[in-house]
Amino acid sequence: MVELAEIMTADVFTVAPDSPVAEAAAAMAKGRFGSAVVMQGQVLVGIFTERDVLRAAASGSDLTRSPVSRWMTRDPETVGPHVDSERAAEIMLGSGFRHLPVVAGTALVGIVSLRDLLSLRVRRHPS
Known about the structure:
By secondary structure, the protein is α+β, with helices and mostly antiparallel strands. The protein is built from 5 helices and 6 strands. The longest helix is centred in the N-terminal third of the chain and has 11 residues. It is globular. The two termini are 20 Å apart.
């Protein structure tokens, strides 16, 4: 049993709700991040993903002015750092998302992606 604390990314890319989509997307591309956790001060208010960037781009909106808050998923599901990686995979696959913020109480402590979980599985079960 592997806990998320062992495999999560602790250095989470975050943006403010009023950040322009173009700015957030450029930073995501440069840093090779699949998502940005949206923080209002110390409070997690949403998650903005590659899929959200695509929806925003397809809308024809001016992405230099359109805020991330317009496109993000509000109040995303979160898990604690001691959740088992198998349970995290079940949550993400069952709900159809690829990034899961990890919190301790109300503090953001990391993020885990389906890629993280797949990498773990490949390392544990080499062919």
